[in-house]
UniProtKB/TrEMBL annotation:
The lineage of its organism: Bacteria, Bacillati, Actinomycetota, Actinomycetes, Kitasatosporales. It comes from the Bacteria. This is TIGR02677 family protein. Pfam families: DUF2397. It comes from Kitasatospora herbaricolor.
Length: 504
């Protein structure tokens, strides 16, 4: 199918297919010889092409089943020459359309860089919410269901394609060697900032998509596909009913959506894996930059020294120069311990051999670091008793404030969030922390959300109210308004008390 992309005339073959593709965009399905020549100029082919060469190229494309040819019997021909030039009409086959689309897609992939776009996640949530409303309205248009489903699948494909492309570029960036430090620092800083911006509220966006998927599934995915099939208005085909294959593709796309945001088998959603990939990439980019910075910070290294020395040996003019270079590079030099002497030098005759002389003790610091020992006054040890006492007192105060807050927030049973009313601001901060922990957890089968504090001492159970409602909490700093919930705050090990629901 892609044989036209190789060989001496590959550019001419590609230009001809591009000319037919441009004609198809204008709903011109058949081109004659003169039409092909004219179209070649519009797609950027400016070289002169003889009729024989053009006909040979068209023949090869027919041989590869990329073009089809028919005789135009409806045309009126005035001369035999006009008949020969205008009789044959060429058009793209299905195989030719696929080949041209494949090349266009390959060029688009090479030119693309990929992206992590939170706007796509929000668009997926919006389309799912719209489908939920349309499925609940029996008088809604099936065509609207079809177009909304097409938009949803388009956003999902864009998410997958951009994520794969961006991850590939990111891994190639991490494996890049020999990059300029300034360029890499700039790219690294921009990439890390981009990833950090993408990770902001990613969990909440993923949870929003999962909740929207669950709501649509409550209305029925099979109903969604049936209505979309009616709205698609598929044309009849010669080889059978196209509906089963169309429905199978829709089910496969929905399975992919579930795998990303709400797996049915209890597996981990892929959007969470994307979260881990982004965080690991940030850490790895910072580590790579540190290694490059550290290697550039050193004035020289043993590897660089030996490579430079090898170049000097290779450029030496003669053997004597090689010996002098070897002596200069690897010969004996002055020792760091040459200044040391015996405690009583007069006992060691100066005429004696150094091999017979008694050894001189060399300190460990000089052998390991090359520095001599210096004996100075011992540094004064700072008294940190006051600091420790202040820290312990502050910790006791914070613990007392925390215990007091838990005493105020503790409930003997389920109560409404709106029942707290006016709170001290410190207690309000503890309550807000508990609510944030609970709302970040996926609800169970009954809609309840459970979370505990980091020390495991306090547990909160959050349930939605059937009738809804709003809750207003006031502190000395202001007021907070939001959805009302039924909540229960207790210690995980404490016995559960059954209490009447507080309607305050």
């Amino acid at each position: 199918m892609f044989r036209f992309t190789t060989g001496e005339k590959a550019e001419l073959y590609g230009a001809i297919l591009q000319a037919f593709g441009a004609a198809n965009e204008r709903l011109e399905t058949a081109l004659g010889l003169d039409d092909v020549r004219a179209r070649l100029r519009t797609v950027g082919w400016l070289d002169a092409v003889q009729d024989d060469d053009l006909q040979e190229a068209l023949r090869k494309l027919r041989e590869w089943q990329l073009l089809d040819v028919v005789q135009n019997h409806a045309e009126n021909y005035r001369t035999a020459e006009e008949y020969e030039r205008r009789n044959l009409q060429y058009s793209l086959t299905r195989r030719g359309e696929a080949a041209f689309a494949g090349v266009e897609h390959a060029l688009a992939v090479l030119a693309s860089t990929g992206a992590l776009q939170t706007a796509v996640l929000e668009a997926i949530t919006d389309r799912l919410d719209e489908l939920y409303v349309l499925l609940g309205d029996h008088v809604s248009s099936d065509r609207r269901v079809f177009t909304t489903l097409q938009e949803l699948e388009g956003h999902l494909e864009a998410l997958l394609a951009n994520t794969k492309a961006f991850n590939g570029e990111l891994q190639r960036l991490l494996r890049a060697e020999g990059a300029d430090l300034a360029t890499f620092r700039e790219v690294k800083a921009a990439t890390v900032a981009y990833l950090q911006e993408f990770l902001v509220n990613l969990d909440q966006r993923g949870q929003a998509v999962a909740s929207a998927v669950e709501r649509v599934e409550e209305r029925g995915v099979s109903l969604l596909h049936e209505r979309a099939l009616r709205g698609a208005e598929l044309p009849p085909v010669t080889d059978g009913d196209p509906a089963p294959a169309w429905l199978e593709r829709r089910r496969a796309r929905w399975d992919g959506l579930q795998a990303w945001f709400r797996p049915m088998d209890g597996a981990r959603p892929r959007v969470e894996q994307l979260h881990d990939v982004a965080r690991r990439a940030i850490v790895t980019l910072l580590q790579v930059l540190d290694r490059i910075t550290e290697s550039r910070r050193r004035s020289s290294s043993a590897v660089q020294d030996f490579r430079e020395l090898a170049r000097w040996f290779a450029a030496a003019p003669g053997e004597e120069d090689l010996h002098r270079l070897w002596s200069a590079a690897f010969g004996l030099g002055p020792a760091r311990h040459a200044h040391l002497a015996h405690p009583d030098p007069e006992l060691v005759p100066s005429s004696g051999s150094w091999a017979d002389a008694p050894p001189v003790e060399v300190s460990t610091l000089l052998r390991t670091s090359g520095r001599t020992e210096r004996f100075t006054r011992t540094g004064k040890v700072r008294d940190i008793g006051g600091i420790k006492a202040a820290r312990a007192d502050r910790a006791r105060k914070e613990r007392a404030e925390l215990e007091a807050a838990w005493d105020v927030l503790g409930t003997d049973g389920p109560v409404r969030l709106s029942g707290f009313g006016i709170l001290d601001h410190t207690v309000f901060e503890r309550l807000l922390d508990l609510l944030g922990r609970a709302l970040a957890v996926r609800p169970d089968g009954r809609g309840a959300r459970r979370a505990v504090t980091s020390d495991g001492r306090v547990e909160i159970v959050l349930r939605p109210l059937p009738e809804g409602g709003r809750a207003v909490l006031r502190t000395s700093w202001g007021r907070l308004e939001g959805p009302d919930y039924l909540l229960e705050i207790r210690s995980p090990g404490a016995p559960r008390v059954v209490a009447r629901e507080d309607t305050g």
